Amino acid sequence: xxxxxxxxxxxxxxxxxxxxxxxxxxxxxxxxxxxxxxxxxxxxxxxxxxxxxxxxxxxxxxxxxxxxxxxxxxxxxxxxxxxxxxxxxxxxxxxxxxxxxxxxxxxxxxxxxxxxxxxxxxxxxxxxxxxxxxxxxxx
Length: 139
Hints:
Elements: H1 3-15, H2 23-34, H3 38-58, H4 68-75, H5 77-87, H6 91-109, H7 125-136
């Protein structure tokens, strides 16, 4: 296992717990709120050059992986810098963590291969924390 994998494993162990107190759940909720919900976040990532990858996360089938650099470019250095600060990691590590988490979370939150309709209730930190726990509980 490489250095980045070790760091990501340690961060996920410390942030992927269930419930609203999970830092990663709170960060994901903030990202969605910033972009007007899950659809807005998906739109931001798509407009940031990840349209093909994001479509694979929403749709059925295999999720196409992304790199830390791609996520940083799509979300912006400032946003990822704020996330890095909240998690206590550097910029690149935060980008790597988001590159690992976003495909799985978006896939999990779109089980029918479709985004929730506009105006649907937003995902709470509790829902996101539970999803993270289910997805990454083995870390």
